[in-house]
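in:
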């Protein structure tokens, strides 16, 4: 006797899986198509200005949560900050950047640091088909995992500065701008830079990979934690750590490691 046809698809239903939301065909955040926008800018000899994430206070701190004088902010393209801007200088590294003074997004930057160990994953988030060189049009794109789908986020390269210096993430090589542009793209997804203030490393790692995470609290560590970390490293899993803020108002002090996060 043949099995019942309960799970058989109707004849008129397509058997081809929907590929929208994959790395090859990501969703378009706010319906912005990178290729079309870039082509239009090049054709019209204009540099892109993002009307969905405007270079003004609404993109930084609309609810005035940060201790930041927004009147001092001037949005500049990298070419107005340095003479020879580059997206990447001699590869990406966790040592390329440092946290800015106004925004508590160390959780995001720690996740970025983990990301730099995996070039293939980094290339998923920050496509290699962009630079400040040939056909530069002031437009960049990044990809994040949102609600079970890969999503492409388009930004212009206007960055908030005070007295010619970047306000948020700082590059240790003055003409390297991938950290600031990645941070801006993530801020756009969040709603504003201020909306990145405080978060969890696991959240950003999920957005970078679509993977699942396991968190180990070091107050009650697993007996075989070192073995687990060793196996995770051998299987090329992303790993990061977190800590709670201490009693000091200085975020650089009183930091005791409390969590290990492994992303599978």
């Amino acid at each position: 006797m043949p099995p019942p046809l309960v799970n058989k698809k109707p004849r008129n239903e397509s058997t081809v899986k929907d590929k929208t939301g994959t790395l090859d065909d990501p969703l378009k955040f706010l319906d912005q198509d990178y290729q079309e926008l870039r082509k239009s800018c090049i054709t019209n000899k204009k540099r892109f200005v993002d009307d969905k994430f405007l270079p003004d206070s609404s993109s930084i701190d609309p609810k005035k949560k940060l201790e930041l004088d927004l009147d001092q902010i001037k949005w500049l393209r990298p070419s107005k900050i340095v003479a020879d801007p580059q997206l990447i200088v001699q590869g990406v590294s966790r040592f390329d950047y440092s946290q800015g003074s106004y925004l508590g997004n160390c959780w995001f930057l720690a996740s970025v640091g983990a990301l730099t160990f995996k070039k293939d994953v980094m290339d998923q988030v920050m496509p290699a088909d962009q630079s400040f060189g040939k056909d530069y049009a002031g437009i960049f794109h990044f990809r994040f995992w949102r609600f079970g789908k890969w999503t492409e986020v388009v930004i212009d390269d206007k960055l908030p500065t005070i007295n010619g210096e970047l306000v948020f993430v700082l590059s240790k090589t003055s003409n390297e701008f991938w950290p600031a542009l990645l941070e801006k793209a993530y801020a756009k997804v969040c709603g504003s830079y201020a909306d990145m203030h405080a978060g969890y490393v696991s959240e950003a790692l999920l957005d970078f990979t679509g993977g699942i995470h396991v968190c180990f609290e070091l107050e009650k560590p697993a007996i075989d934690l070192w073995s687990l970390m060793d196996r995770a490293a051998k299987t090329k899993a992303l790993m990061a750590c977190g800590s709670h803020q201490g009693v000091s108002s200085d975020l650089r002090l009183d930091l005791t490691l409390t969590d290990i996060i492994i992303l599978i």
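note: The chain has two domains: 27-200, 212-264.
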